[in-house]
Amino acid sequence: MAEIDADLFRGALGCFASGVTIVTTLRDGAPAGTTVSAFSALSMDPPLVLVSMDRGSNTLAAIRDAGFFGVNILSAEQAGIARKFASSKGGPKFEGVDWQSEVTGAPLFAENSSTIDCALEMVHDGGDHEILVGRVLFVDCPGETEPLLYFKSAFRELVSS
Predict the structure, then answer these.
(1) Of 29, 51, 66, 103, which has fewest CB within 10 angstroms of its CB?
(2) Structural domain for 37, as ranges
C-alpha cells in the first residue's frame, strides 16, 4: 500500500466544511471541554451520535471517567468560545461561560445553535483518535441561528446569496 503524505491528507480533509462543537463533561465536579469538528449523527433509533477525539485529549480522559458528555453545537456568534476551547493554553476555559446541565450533568452552553446531552455508550479505536458513541438523553434546539463552520483550518460563517 502507498504511503499517504500527512500534509496532503490534512489539506484534503480541510476541504470538507463541518460544523463546530464543544464537547464537555464533568470530572470530579470540575467542568472539562474541548472544541471538536469531528461530530456526526449516527442513528435515529436508538438516538446515537459520534464524536472523534485525539487520544491525548484531557477531555477524552474525563469523558471516559465520567461516562457522559454534552455536545454544544455552536452558532456563528460563538467563534471566540470555539477558539478558547480549542487551545490547551491560557486561562480556565469555563471562566465567563454561562452553562447549565440537564440529564447527565455535562456543561451545556446557553447560546448554542443546539445542545445534545449523552451517556457514553461505546468507545472504538480510531487510529490516533478514539470514536465515542453517545446515547442521546436530551436535546434542545432553541431557535434559528446561523451555524459556525470550520473550513480550510479557519472558522467561517454562511454567506447568503
Answers:
(1) 29
(2) 20-157
Q: What is the DSSP string of 9-51?
A: HHHHHHTS-EE-EEEEEEETTEEEEEEE--EEEEETTTTEEEE
74 close to 20: Cβ distance less than 8 angstroms: yes
Residues 77-124 have pLDDT tens digits of 999 999 999 987 656 899 989 999 999 999 999 889 999 999 999 999
Residue 10 within any structural domain of the chain: no
Residue 13 within a domain: no
The answer to which of 34-43, 47-56, 127-136, 150-159 has the lowest mean pLDDT is 150-159
* Domains contained in the chain, number: 1
For the CA atoms of the chain, what is the radius of gyration? 16
Per-residue pLDDT of 144-161, as tens digits, reads: 888 999 988 888 888 776
The CATH number covering residue 26 comes to 2.30.110.10
CB 132 within 8 A of CB 69: yes
